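Sorry to interrupt, but I need a hand with the structure work. Could you write out one complete protein record for me, on any chain you like? Just paste the record in under my message, thanks.

. . .
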Amino acid sequence: MDEGRIPPIDLRQLHYFIAIAEQGSISSAAAVLGLAQPSLSEHVSRLEKKLDTQLIIRGARGVHLTEAGVALSRHARDILHNVELAVEDVRHLGGEARGPVSIAFPPSMGLLLSVPLAETIQAEFPQVRLHIAEALSGYIMEWILNERIELGCVYEVPDTSHVTAQPVLSEDLFLVTAPDNWDGVILPNGKAEKPITLAEVQALPLVLPSRPHGAREVIERFAKSNGVRLDVVTEIDSLPQIIAMADRASAYTILPHAAVINEVANGSLALVEIIKPTIRRTAYLIRKRSRSVSRASITVEHMLTTIIAEMIERHHLEARLPAQS
């Protein structure tokens, strides 16, 4: 291959190569693609010749990607996804968004965003049929991969090989309690005048969700890395019940402002900033890479990010856009 010259590669070759990478064997990939195995092998050989490098290693138990093959697989997924987006945008340019769109939120985000998103879509895009679900981040990721839903908001994205992940919100976690259960001064905005260190939090009885919950994993990770052992007296996998216990001063809890924005606004709960360290997490909007992207889902994605920005600006949500983090 001439140095500096980009070899002609068609999208079909990239699609075939990704199938081989995902299936782990040429025969399995050929079956999925509906091709003859020799034909698929020939496509791979041509691709390797164009790139002047070996992409796969054949073995008795299938194929393994070389370092170059891993790199091509990663870039090929992005290329095909971007082509899908471009085609969908051009196809529907000037057209009206329509059709079903499904999205799932973790409970704390659902409390904040579900109703505003539903009302906005209903008012501005009446031809879009929106379905909203709530679940823990792990379940949302599973639903995305099995195509039960199109869009999902999650706090942990351990692997982006099968999903795209766009950061949409960065938020701090606060100690949450009833105002009369706090010795310090509570300001008019619902926040305690003085913060509390994570080491000091370990002396307080906490109610938290169990460990499969994304928020619990984040909290425990910060605690462990700082040598803190939290006193979790009760585990409840229900956000409303956790909030109720904090409201009744039965225990303290740790939540983002979004989860208790109404309670803080009406004075029934207060936020205490946690420092040394600050517990911060990022929410991502995810979708499956290999799934086609509809104009309606692009519209919902755009409206969601717009609503989040407005929530931060107009309602003094204790969070920030990713670019501000």
Residues 67-91 form the longest helix (25 residues).
